[in-house]
Structures are given as C-alpha cells and as structure tokens.
C-alpha cells in the first residue's frame, strides 16, 4: 500500500473500506516497511562498524581518519552497483557524514 494512492493491492478503493480495515492495512504496511528499513540500516551500520574496526586494528590508532576511511569504503561499496559516479558520491557523502559525526562526538565539553 502506498500512501500517495487511494488504491489497495487489489486495486479497490481504500477509502470505500471501513475505518477499521483501512487502519489495519495501513499499520500492516507500516510494519513491513519499518522492518525493511531497520534491516537495511542494520546492514549499513554493521558494514561501517566492521570496516572501521578493521582499519583501526590495522593502523593501531584511534583517530578521525578511521571513521572517514570506513565511511568512504562503505559509501563507495553501497553505490558501486549504480556505477562509478554513484560510488564516488557515496564515498564522499559517507566520509563527510562520518567526519561530521566524529567531530561532534570528539569535541571538548566545557
């Protein structure tokens, strides 16, 4: 069920159904989409954390470069299916986001 169309999976109008059935279908669809999003987020998180851990073990240092490099590798890997330009944009985007989060987490608190 998409929220931009009033038609259900069988092509019937959702607005013609009783409220209880509309809510039931909406919550069921929301649950399946939430599970899918959570699974994808978990995969990306595990990929980033594993890569960062390997880089940190190899370099034997704990600094911002580990997260930026792991972000670049993760973003590039995720964008690789769409081509080299998407891989480069994914690399830069994930690396920049990782650098921003790392800078925020490592800042000195007064």
Explain what you see.
The chain is mostly helical and 110 residues long. It is built from three helices and no strands. Helix 1 (19-59) crosses helix 2. The longest helix has 41 residues, at 19-59. The model has no long low-confidence stretch (mean pLDDT 87).
> What's the alpha carbon Rg, rounded to whole Å?
21 Å
**Which class best fits the helix and strand makeup?**
mainly alpha
Count of alpha and pi helical runs? 3
Q: Mind summarizing the main beta sheet?
A: none
Order of SSEs: HHH
Fraction of residues in β-strands: under 5%
Cα end-to-end separation: 50 Å
Oligomer class: single chain
Net shape: elongated
Notable traits:
single chain, 3 helices, 110 residues, mainly alpha
Secondary structure elements and pairings:
Blueprint (H helix, E strand, L loop, with lengths): L18 H41 L4 H16 L4 H23 L4
Condensed summary:
The protein has 110 residues and is mainly alpha-helical. The chain is 73% helix and 0% strand. The protein is built from three helices and no strands.
């Amino acid at each position: 069920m998409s929220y931009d169309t009033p038609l259900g999976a069988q092509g019937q109008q959702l607005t013609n159904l009783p409220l209880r059935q509309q809510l039931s279908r909406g919550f069921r669809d929301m649950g399946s989409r939430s599970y899918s999003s959570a699974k994808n987020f978990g995969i990306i998180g595990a990929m980033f954390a594993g890569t960062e851990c390997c880089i940190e073990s190899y370099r034997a240092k704990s600094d911002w470069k580990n997260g930026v490099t792991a972000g670049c590798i993760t973003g590039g890997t995720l964008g690789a299916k769409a081509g080299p330009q998407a891989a480069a944009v994914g690399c830069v985007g994930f690396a920049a986001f990782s650098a921003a989060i790392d800078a925020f987490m490592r800042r000195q608190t007064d």
